[in-house]
């Protein structure tokens, strides 16, 4: 059942969301190479931080109705080794990598 899997992934066996409720990427620098962007920064997951570089794409722009400031949307495909972030539960079928497309705005 998918709710059992979701509960297990949220438990201390994996992401331990009670203790570590957020996965955070804080960019420190963005390089532009033609139409491509590379965001460099710190990814913190499960209480462990590592410097990484993410190829990102612009998904759109808009104006914040409250502040009048321009906002840009971004998306990145992210794959990291969960073992690098001390998520060490092992199973012969489960890969050691977690990932997927994630988005944000700035």
Features:
single chain, 106 residues, mainly beta, five-stranded antiparallel sheet, 1 helix, 54% strand
Brief account:
Helices cover 8% and strands 54% of the residues. By secondary structure, it is mainly beta.
Overall description:
A hairpin with a 2-residue loop joins strand 2 (36-45) and strand 3. The chain has a five-stranded antiparallel sheet, with no helix packed on it. The N and C termini lie far apart (37 Å). 8% of the residues lie in helices and 54% in strands. It is built from one helix and five strands. By secondary structure, the protein is mainly beta. It has one helix spanning 2-10; strands spanning 24-33, 36-45, 48-63, 70-81, 97-105.
Low-confidence stretches: none
End-to-end Cα distance, whole Å, is: 37 Å
- Overall pLDDT confidence: 83
Label the overall shape.
extended
Spatial order of the strands in the main sheet? 1-2-3-4-5
Assembly state: single chain
The total beta strand count reads 5
User: What is the makeup of the main sheet?
Assistant: 5 strands, antiparallel
Strand portion, in percent?
A: over 45%
Radius of gyration from the alpha-carbon trace, in angstroms = 16 Å
Report the structural category.
mainly beta
Please give the structural blueprint.
Layout: H1 2-10, E1 24-33, E2 36-45, E3 48-63, E4 70-81, E5 97-105
Antiparallel strand pairs: 1-2, 2-3, 3-4, 4-5
